[in-house]
Amino acid sequence: MQTPPRPVTLGIVQTHATPDPADNLNRQIALIRDAARRGARIICTQELYRSIYFCQEENHDHFALAEPIPDGPSTKAFQQVAKELGVVIVASLFERRAAGVYHNTAVVIDADGAFLGMYRKMHIPDDPLFYEKFYFTPGDLGFRSWRTRYATIGVLVCWDQWYPEAARLTALSGAEILFYPTAIGWHPSEREQYGKAQHDSWETIQRSHAIANGCYVAVPNRIGHERPIPNGEGIEFWGQSFVAAPDGSVAARASSSQEEILVVEADLSRVEFARTHWPFLRDRRIDAYGDLTRRLIDRP
Question: Would you call 47 a catalytic residue per the annotation?
């Protein structure tokens, strides 16, 4: 039987950041309004949109950028805009949960402005210029999805992109679309040697999540060369935000350096089609996966 089309238009925002949080919030809202005017009904920001990517250094001053959720200024502003425009908003924030406990968090706001919930980033990196363990406590809300006005969506954040377990568990909770707010780029000194391979790996792993779970994957990334450390190398964010369909094909991809809003029509009937024609969820051997909860499988 042919599944009737279920169209929903996605909007993902690719932009730069400045040192001024208020400016970043105002520009983000303006871009969301533009996306809504162009028909987007579920709109997602890039990771930590409200500031430059401060995790390039370990500096206690940056904790002042954090805000409470849901009572902070960003969540309140997005709730107002979502209600006004009738759109769902996924927004990435630096959450101040309590003194000494901070999270890299994404909030989900429904089209009536209701705060549906939040996801706290589970996988926290600690690499050169990505010193996130200094700032972020690992998430403790698990992997889940939310039934919004337009679709059931799941949210993961940046470094979570490399973990098929995270995508799978979010899809198993009902997500038809996985959103990944992202801030990833090149070390300029490494770009010539490793840049193409790094980008290809990043895109390929996420397209594979779309295939393995029969869902859409939407990935907003930032652009710009940010140097919060004086005379430091900084990070050259590679943009190239994209939306992948349930068969892994790229429905749309942004440039590597220009501010863009990708507005992409997704047909959620393709999720049903993918999951019945390639029934990976049906054929999972859940009786045999117990060792996935172990760090390593040590054998004699």
Answer: yes
